[in-house]
Please model this.
Amino acid sequence: MPPLRQGKERAGPPAPAVLHARARHAASASRLQSITAALSRAVTREEVARTLVERGVAALGAAEGCLWTGAPGGSEAQLVFQLGASPEDRARWERVPLAEVPAPLAEAIAKGEPVFAGSAAEAASRWPAAVRATPGEFAFACLPLEAEGRVTGGVAFVFHEARRFDYDDQVFLVVLARLAAQALLRATAYHAELAAHAEAEAARQRATFLAEATALLSSSLDWETTLASLARLAVPAVADWCSVEVPEGLAAGDRPVAVAHVDPAKVERALELRRRWPPDPAAPTGAPAVIRTGRSELYPETSDALLVAGATDPEQLRIARELGMTSGMIVPLSARGRTLGAVTFVATESGRRFGAADLAMAEELGRRAGIAVDNARLWHEAQRAIRARDEVLAVVSHDLKNPLESVLLSSALLLRDPDPAQVRRYAETLQRSASRMDRLIRELLDLSRMDAGRLQLEIRPERLEALADEALGVLAPLAHERRIAVSVAGAPLEDAVPCDRERILQVLSNLVGNALAFAPHGGHVVVSLALSQRDAEVRVADDGPGIPAEDLPHVFDRFWKSRSRGTGLGLAIVRGIVDAHGGRVWVESRVGEGSTFAFTLPRGA
Model:
């Protein structure tokens, strides 16, 4: 009986095919391990693409390798890195459409599955419209870059001979593509983190800058100093060149209120450009448009074509090019719902490009600067109001003092010596003094109503010649006393004019009384009346000494007096009443030739 064998029989040595497969598998695993280690050190998209393509080409023995990326569901893929392709092929593959003619890469990305072609004949039969007519044999593999359920691009390896992609080759390529996709996701996340950190730091710097700007802008109550501080603050923190415009400067063709440049030598060049070619206040773009509309303008890229479009002649274009503008933005200088001006920021030497975040910060800076300027304006208006109040008090005190002293003196004399023969004289003095005080008080009340917008008008159709006759009738004794000839020209008029009877009588009385005060003894005062299609015009002319040219802008100012002995309020009240009617008032005069005061009243209701 033969002895029993203990356990299994010992196997013989592996077959050569098995040994070859094991060696090939070990080599493939080693190459993947090496590529994985290299990809782990790549932190940018470009580094990942280079590492994968170079190592993949070396591991596979391929002639060419390319990697594309694109947004999931996008219409095209963009080339990131290529190796071995000709310049013509690189240009042709720079952007690969994914939704047009059937193509290997587009198919791999769209389906999320690898595509293999082992020969030129196989490729031509499957994609006849996309595969180029290339002499000789070739093969390729196109693989999607898929990770976390998303396809973010593709990779292709090209061989210049026919090749059979067996199971091990396909597994190697698929794993290689998955490794690349994971590395690209890490690089994208890394870049997103860097971008978020950079944006957070930029936001912190913008907040710090705006806080410093607010402190600086509020340090002065002079609006021009405030705007100059704004320009200096913006350079170089925000831009390389900053200028501030206000509407008055545009209309007059003046230089900007403030201008600053990182290169002081270029400030004069910028001012020369502004001086020789001042902006058109009605321009559809630029600072004039921003002032009109209150809407900002952003120019991320100041191209040469943009400079050419904005230049009116070759010399202007030459200077604009010398300034080297690369980007720009214009924001309104606004406060309390009003646009006070425009601030222009230009990038030159730094080469920076302005974006939406820069525009938002510039707009906030414009708002803060606008509030600072408006506060300075309000402060100056308050100071002017205080000075005006002091002037009013001084004038009223002065003009009330004399009649009040007359009242006190006359009443004291009446009490001390009630002589019947003197009572009438004392009473007349009291009446004149009281009338002067009453007139001053009424004029002050009228001005107060005008300032508050509470001057009420009772508009009715009135005949101007009747109002002129009435005003002259009241002043006739004064004219007779001074032997001044007073007449009305242009009457009778055909139609009545809508106006407030009492107020226009007040205007005529003030103007005629003023003319009588300055006309010489034996002189003339003429009231002329005329009607046009839109207005009625009244002119009061005298042949007095006239008004010097330097005084003409002030004749309607409050408390302005020439050689009269009045309160200095009459002409200011005339202007206020005419303005309330919607008309206008002016004066024409030459020294030695007399003066003419004129006003219009609209004939519409």
Summary: The chain has four domains: 22-191, 220-370, 381-452, 459-602. The domain at 459-602 is CATH 3.30.565.10 (Heat Shock Protein 90). The first strand starts at residue 64 and ends at 69.
